[in-house]
From TrEMBL:
Gene3D superfamilies: Ribonuclease Inhibitor, Transferase(Phosphotransferase) domain 1. InterPro entries: Kinase-like_dom_sf (IPR011009), Leu-rich_rpt (IPR001611), Leu-rich_rpt_typical-subtyp (IPR003591), LRR_dom_sf (IPR032675), Plant_LRR-RLKs (IPR050647), Prot_kinase_dom (IPR000719). Keywords: Leucine-rich repeat, Repeat. This is Protein kinase domain-containing protein. It holds the Pfam family LRR_8. GO terms for molecular function: ATP binding; protein kinase activity. The keyword NAD does not apply. It comes from Heterosigma akashiwo (Chromophytic alga). PROSITE patterns: PROTEIN_KINASE_DOM (PS50011). Residues 1-104 form the Protein kinase domain.
Amino acid sequence: AGGPRRGEGEYDTRSDVYAVGLLLIALHSGRAPFDTTGYESVESLVASIQSGLLAPDIPSDMPPKLREFARRCTSLDPAKRPTIVEAIQFCEELAFAAHENPYYLNHLHRKPTLWEFEGSNLEAETLSALYQKTHGHCWERSEGWLRDGDLGCWYGVEMKGRSVDGLYLSENDLAGPLPRSICNLILLDTLDLSFNSLSGFVPEEIGSLENLRVLLLNDNKFSGPLPRSLAKLAKLERCVLSWNALTGIVPSALGALRRLRVLYLCGNRLTGLVPPALAGLDTLEALSLHSNKLQGNMAEIGLEKLTNLTSLDMSSNYFSGKIPDNLGQLTRLKKLHLNQNLLTGEVPTDIWQLSNLKQLYLNGNMLNQTLEAAAWMQEQLPACSIRI
């Protein structure tokens, strides 16, 4: 290739990459990287390169990452070149971009490669797989997808620096399974795929999104059990999986989500007991488990420990026993729905201490309440809508 030190018996891990830079230039431009006019032999050409009189012509229209790497490879100073290992890794990624990514394959006419992306190659591959597997051609909105080189210009994709930070594709006609490769978006903060037609299991790999704060998968067609890997999402603050067809139990491992503020699992087919571990989520502000097939003695769950709750909805299940004592400790509570269960006994008097309460629904149970008692309750909470 004629690089510096060539033929001098001084090969090292950097000097050989000079040829890599020349090859990248030639592949991009379709011409030789040097003007060899006037050189009668390879030796004279090498001498001019080594002396700095002749430098490769790096096209200005090369993608920035590719251009910079070619420039580094062809530096006269071997110490400034990448190692041969770095060069191999770079070329492997280039081969991936050229042969495997649908973004590239669909748009060969403008020579796009993943070097143009503001995000990583892996993120581009992941988003492309999501587009393909959820019938992206049928999405309501898909501006920029598989066309624009900047991932931040893809509809619903939000970037933070050079990484995908948010994916907002709510109400966008996504259908089919959620690809397991979604776990490759390791810096993702928000995943909102709500109000679509996604189906199949929620992949266990979702637990690898260790930076996730907001997970919105509600109003889809997901089935199967709740992934236990959700417990690995230590930064999760909002988890909304309501109105799907999820089955099985509520995993006690969810009690490990110490930052969780919102947990909505309503409108599924969940069965069994509510694990007492949920009562340890002292940051929880809203808990909705209504419209499932949950059962057990409600007083044994420990709901009174969730003192930051403003909304609690356990309606339309099979909970039995008495309404838990000490619910009056939930002084921030604005909404309390325990209706349509199998509850018995009296309404605890400390409920009337909940001065912020706006909705109290206890109807559809087997409570011992008279009309006179109901009228008295309304007097205690005049601003509250009460159903008994």
